[in-house]
Batch of 2 targets.
Target 1
Amino acid sequence: MPKILLLPFIFLCFYSCAPSRFVKPLNKKQQAVDLALGGPLIAYKNVTIPTPFFTATYGYGISNTLTGFGSLNITSAIYGNFQMELGAVKRIATQRGFIPAISVTPVANIIYRNKDANKFYPQVDVNAYWNYNKGKGLFYIGLSNWFELAQTRAFDVKQPNHWLPSPMIGQTFIRRKFNFTIEVKVIAPNISYLSNTVDYTSPLGKHGAFGIYLGYTRKLKSK
């Protein structure tokens, strides 16, 4: 089977295959649907391309500072792997001039193929963001943190890494009915992929992977 067809299975246990969700909370009772495409860059037939992960997210503004959301990885589902996220983003500090607003996003990542192949990853993201150009632009930086709870991995090998960080930077262009976001991320720079089947592209050589993501958010009418 070609490498590209193996990707959904290889990445079943490869976290952070999607961009940030609602870095800035929605307004109270606001609804939105987000579609995102992208993933870690890989070398494929002498060309560097992003992995084609496609995810869909629904968000609802519980209050002006708290948004709940749920996501489904469409690419994984096509290959028989159920992969979803349930989480919320909470603004804990407002922007004051050049001092950014701060949001925290706890997430439950659920991955299921069958009763013998299922995983749960808790995740906590922290983002700093700045609105500018009269609210038409939003720039953010953040750190996504996944946590591996298992003590061992395949063949009872001891799990050496329990904290899986991914620093990121992004830009959102805000319009009345939709937003467009581009995000870049260094995924798990503390992990070496020397023995992996896929050749990741990373600014750190054989550590981590460099991801690029595009997101389109459609704003729906408030309830």
Target 2
Amino acid sequence: PVHIALLLLLLLGPAPQRRGGWFVATWLAASIVMLLALLAVGHGLLLTMDKGSSHRTGLDLLAAGALLALGLRELLEDRAEGAEPPGWSRQLDRFVAMPLPPLLALSVLLQLCSPDDLFLYAKAGGTLLEAGLGRGPELLAGGLFCLSTTLFLILPLAALLVLGQERVLPALASTRDWLLARGDLLVGLVSLALAAMLGWQGIEGLRLS
């Protein structure tokens, strides 16, 4: 939600196509570099989290527990009507006001430091390595994965480019408001979904080992 909200604010501000385009391109480039780095390290990487070996199964279960705790905290936290929005949302206006280079650097830092992102990239890298694909199919599958991580950023930018800022301005503003109001709920649901996936694979690893 942080990156989507940042993009929406950029698209609602000055020079939306240039700033939003660079923002989306930077996310995609960081995704590609991160996945290529994991693939370059190879099958010995512990963070691949493939099921079936003790240390990788342990990482699956550890990640599932951490994401379960995060998801429950976000969903169960009491937010009375009129309460302040999530802490991360209160920093967005300050981030958007930054010049573009430091804003992009901050975006990449947040992307690289996000536990959800790290686990997903590690899982994707491990799956590709385990599949034993040739270099070409491996790069193609990795590229499709990286493109999929950018989907929710590409859609509003594409709508702006195709329809124009004035036509999509109300939709962008309402989406921004909804995201700021429901960001914690979204984080909680995504975290619980990831926890369920990793927990199931951890249990499968225990059964197979």
